[in-house]
Design brief:
14 strands; alpha+beta; 481 residues; 9-stranded mixed beta sheet; 40% helix; 19 helices
Amino acid sequence: MGALVKKMVNGRAYYHYEESKQVDGMPKVVFQKYLGSADKLLELAQNPEKPIQDRVLHSVSYECGMVTLLYDLAKRLDLVGIIDSFVPKRRQGASVGSYILAEAINRVVAPSSTEELQHWHETTYLPHLTNLNADVFSGHNFWKNANKISEKALESIEDAILSKMLAVYEIDISNLIYDATNLFTYIDATQESQSATFDRCKSKRNDLRVVALALLASQDFSIPLMHETCLGNWNDAKEFVRIMNRLKNSRKILTSRDNDIAAKFDRSNNSDDDVKSLDSFDNPINYVGRLKKNQAKELWAVPKEQYTPLIGDGFTEQSAYRMEVDVFGERLTALIVHDPKLEKSRLQDIKLNIEKTRKLLSELSSNLYGYASGGIVEGIYPTVDGVKNSLKNILKTEYMEDIFKYKILQEGGNVYLSFGASKIALDKIRRDGLGKTALFTNRSDFSNEEIVGAYRSACHAEHAFKQMKDPEHLTTEPLFH
């Protein structure tokens, strides 16, 4: 309940409005507003007809709606209680769970660095919801508490939250999607780091260190269920086995609702070890994956005339051919799918690359003629080996080496180049591979449409990553330190 408080400053009386609450057994002011002098209060009382904009003496705006909604969701899941049960601390200041919750809400509402957490916190309604002052959420205090969470405790926390989520919400976990990405950081390149390394960054920040993230998400609403943080230059296949072992250990949690679990993964995960890790479960995990061309050549050799149409929404003009294949030491169901829209898109890309390659080859041929005619006298005089190296670099783009035919000629100590693009080669590439995707599964009872639909659901994990990298919402990139 509020109270009007008089304060004397230089012999004059000023008034404040204050609200107090019991915090740790002691009364504490949690809200205070300056109202002004007695004359100001009298003026307010005598002019109630004035608009509120004209009568207000002082106002502060707080972020309320979104933080209150997220705080309510966290209370339903007992998020703070779950974290604190695995990472207890002395009764001093905010708990570890409170720090993690504040950071999580910040990431959704107004992503900032941890050093800015305190400033953001005091602009929200969170202090009034939690009875915790914003000044306890300094960057130093956050990291001091976050570092109390061990890797083992983190896995236990994640499993406990997952169990609570499944108990509170109707989440369909019959189909799980696996995928991996990496996140760039601002870690100094000269500092040692156990997790951040230099590698190809999916956000094109190849000048910065990256940390990898492997994620297991639900097909329903793209909800992250389990994760593994990995080295930036991680081995995708090994991390797949690691997270599948986590899935195996958490099987009781996930199968409390539905025993029919299927995992989807891409070509980078289809190794013997990956498939064996799924078959090693007491109740083996079902899976749908994608094959590389050299893993099932017999599939790619089937003429499109033998394909049968796919039926249903999302399969317009698409067709497939089904057969059993021996792959990864198993007899599995395989399906090769042809999508005319995908073929058209890939063909357009190839034609653009043909034009770029033709231009580069023309420049190389023109330069060789320039040296032979004496028009060019600077630089290193071309040799056959030098021209071969240049050709290797120019034709390294996919399919270009198959499409372009060339001859290197020598005459009078000079080197010449003739070349041309083969339409026959392009037609063969289009006929043999463009627009085709080869899939495999241990679910022989799945229809063709179910296999394709299950594999394409992997886009849900990609959607989760897209959200995580959105600078305006839920961003985890870049990682601040």
